[in-house]
């Protein structure tokens, strides 16, 4: 049966290794000492924990949106009515267009943290490479 080190489980869960250690220490997530003395998690136990949703942000459980990108605001452009806000969330760049009022109320500025919550239909843009005049 596959086993995972704490750091590997953290990567799969999208949390820090310290968070996984706290879950193990509190008994929320079972782990054993491997041959090297380090704590390891059985793949089946980790899968059950991930399927249970116990590791998710409580806000996520009260929303139908499942795509959440927590990151750092890297760019904000405001005009009189609208604002464009760019968030870098790991390797993902997310840009949101919103009212200026909303951006102001949220206090969005470069260097602040924010979470982009994406709930939308599928949008695909393709080109054939041909340009028609």
Automatic annotation (TrEMBL):
Keywords linked to the UniProt accession: Molybdenum
Domain Mop as annotated: residue spans: 62-127
Protein name per Swiss-Prot or TrEMBL: Helix-turn-helix transcriptional regulator
InterPro entries: HTH_17, Mo/tungstate-bd_C_term_dom, Mop_domain, SinI_DNA-bd, Transp-assoc_OB_typ1
UniProt cross-references to CDD domains, sorted A to Z: HTH_MerR-trunc (cd04762)
Keyword Nuclease: no
Cross-referenced PROSITE patterns: MOP
């Amino acid at each position: 049966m596959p086993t995972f080190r704490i750091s590997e489980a953290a990567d799969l869960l999208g949390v820090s290794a310290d968070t996984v250690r706290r879950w193990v220490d509190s008994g929320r997530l079972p782990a054993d000492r491997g041959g090297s003395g380090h704590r390891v998690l059985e793949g089946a136990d980790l899968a059950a924990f991930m399927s249970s949703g116990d590791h998710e942000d409580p806000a996520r459980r009260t929303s139908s949106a499942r795509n959440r990108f927590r990151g750092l605001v890297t760019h904000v452009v405001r005009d009189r009515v609208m604002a464009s806000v760019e968030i870098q969330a790991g390797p993902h760049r997310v840009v949101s267009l919103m009212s200026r009022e909303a951006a102001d109320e949220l206090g969005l500025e470069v260097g602040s943290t924010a979470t982009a919550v994406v709930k939308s239909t599928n949008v695909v843009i393709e080109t054939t490479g041909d340009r028609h005049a």
